[in-house]
Amino acid sequence: FPELHAAVPGLPLSSSRVLPGIVLRRDFAAYCPTDGELRALLVTEPLRPALTVPGVEFVVDSEGQYQASLRWITERTEALMKHLQSNNVKLLLSSVKQEDIVIYYAKLYGVSVVECLSSEEMALISEITGVSPYVPYGDTMDREITETAVVTFCQPLLLVSRRCVHIGFASVCAFQPHCLILCGPVHGVNEQHAAALQEAFTMLQQLFKTVDQ
């Protein structure tokens, strides 16, 4: 329930509504508008390549080596974004904050990015889509990316003064997510309404379990 409702203080209760899909309460780190269905990728690690693996010391002996290392990072980041573009990936949903170079090349190659998703949001998206987070294959950039989710729409949503991301997913299960936009004059009233609704849904779940048995 916490991931499927958004409380919006400062509006009358009559402004409440139900939206298809889910609403992520954060803004795009990069937004590239696109029409129709698109492919989304879940990631749980920075996409900027590291110069070494954990526990291994990387020593730079000269300014030339340092500049060469920066060029390698830039080239690998661009190559990854080209690889995503060639696999029709238009949306990155990341549980971590991506570095500026990733956002730069995402914008350059038409890939929208949403960062800092919670573990609960990532788990919900995985449940809806049946997709696990993507792990880049080291130096391999020629394999097809199969860990993609189908997104039916992806657009900004303004809730009073807060910028959010509104996404619709093609669900692989019977669960068709919808998000409740719960409006009220002040935050405390919204909390009361949200708690009452959650209790009502819990009661209905228990009722249907009893009927099924």
Written overview of the protein:
InterPro entries: BBS10, GroEL-like_apical_dom_sf, TCP-1-like_intermed_sf. This is BBS10 protein. The protein has 213 residues and is of the alpha/beta class. It has four helices and nine strands, in the order E-E-E-E-H-E-H-E-H-E-E-E-H. It has helices spanning 63-86, 100-108, 119-129, 187-212, and strands spanning 5-9, 17-20, 22-24, 38-43, 89-94, 112-114, 148-159, 162-169, 178-184. Strands 3-8-7-4-5-6 form a six-stranded mixed sheet. Strands 1-9-2 form a three-stranded mixed sheet. The longest helix has 26 residues, at 187-212.
Distance between the termini: 24 Å
Q: Quick one: biggest sheet? A: 6 strands, mixed
H-E order: EEEEHEHEHEEEH
The overall pLDDT average reads: 86
CATH superfamily of the largest domain: GroEL
Main-sheet strand order equals 3-8-7-4-5-6
Q: Count of helical segments?
A: 4
Q: Give the strand tally.
A: 9
Oligomeric composition of the shown chains: single chain
Q: What's the CATH C level of the largest domain? A: Alpha Beta
- Hey, roughly how much beta strand do the residues contain? 25-35%
Residue runs with pLDDT of under 50 for 5 or more positions: none
Specify the CATH architecture of the largest domain.
3-Layer(bba) Sandwich
Structural class: alpha/beta
CATH topology of the largest domain: GroEL
Radius of gyration: 21 Å
